Amino acid sequence: MKMFVKQLAIKDFTYNLPDEKIAKHPLQKRDESKLLVFDKGTIKEDNFFNLDQYISKNSLVIFNNTKVVEARLLFKKSTGTTIEIFCLEPADEYADITTAMLQHKKVLWKCLVGNAKKWKDEVLVKTIWFNKKAIEFSAKKISRHDENFIVEFFWDNVELSFAEVLHLAGVIPLPPYLHRNAEQDDTVRYQTIYAQHNGSVAAPTAGLHFTDEVFKKLSAKNITKNFVTLHVGAGTFKPVQTETIETHEMHAEFFEVSIELIEKILNALHQKIIAVGTTSLRTLESLYWMGIKAGQQSTVNNQQLVVEDLYIKQWDVYEMNDENISAHDALTSLLKWMKKNNLLKLVTKTQILIAPPYRLKIVNALVTNFHQPKSTLLLVVAAVIGDDWKKVYEYALQNNFRFLSYGDGCLLFAL
Hints:
The chain is of the alpha/beta class. It has two domains: 2-67 and 191-413, 3-Layer(aba) Sandwich (QueA-like); 71-170, no CATH class. It has helices at residues 2-6, 97-101, 162-169, 186-189, 212-220, 259-267, 278-296, 316-319, 327-340, 376-385, 388-398, and strands at residues 34-39, 42-47, 60-64, 66-68, 72-76, 82-90, 106-114, 124-130, 133-145, 148-155, 197-200, 224-230, 253-258, 273-276, 299-300, 303-304, 345-350, 365-369, 409-413. The strands form four sheets. It has a nine-stranded mixed β-sheet. Strands 5-6-7-10-9-8 form a six-stranded antiparallel β-sheet. Helix 6 (259-267) packs antiparallel against helix 9 (327-340) and helix 7 (278-296) crosses helix 9 (327-340). The chain is globular, with a radius of gyration of 22 Å.
């Protein structure tokens, strides 16, 4: 299977997306977006407000409660030249994003830098305001690694964490295909209503459609909601630029899942489990493979298995032998390992690449938006519903669905 996946031609996962089909702004009300439902080869069209009508009672719906941070920072050099710094993820010194976000006084971050050639050794400084007090916020370039830079940020207010400083100093990083700067409305609308944990540079956009009213209707059918946290990286927008996906490097992202949720998933395997967004799906499917690793490798090199050994790399799911191990057995192994190590939550990274002919191990259906041509997100959709993704996208294009981050949604039931 691995070689088949590696040889997938990205030209087979493209379509013509006219610019006028891309939603440049959100609708006035979140749940007024259109909903396309695909199940057993049949397409239905409705309003997102009626999502509950298509989900079985007693289902488990899982959301990503990450929060988009104001990761786009604009500094001016002493000459007046603007340097744009885009915060990608913490430097390797930090165990996870939350730890880095809670740093005080200074922090190291991996960044993209616009106008990098014009930024030599100067320490960039900008003034921000907190409780009517001026704060000096500075950036110093430390090193370069390929396209990314390690930047040290420091500020002269010991009370503020880096997350709070970003909120004061930065701008919400809208997707590049919107071709516009963030506006005041985006600070609210490019955020789910349940966003909680700072760390993403892109919204888990399937969740943007949900409102309290939609949640009430789901709850009325005894449909349970729960949350994972996966911090979405800028790599989510990176199209596959090679002829096959063999040489495309999948982005790795931090995620966090509680032991209680894993137990709930285990108990809900006989029901429908719906992932809201490709990020939630990638997290849930990663749990299965981490359970396989926990069950098959009680020790590694005569050492006890540690959380880093569970990290799912790009091709792992096509190389590992799951021997038709059930989701129940895999999750049981993962829980056993967590309890043995006194872990109440799993905090790690996944680089999982989901593409045809991958078959979902835990998730039964996906709520998602309409994705860019030649994107790894479209590969996920193709893995969920097979070649019918072409039929779904053609229908959406012909019936005035709005595409990409601020666009309409769909509910796709897996093959």
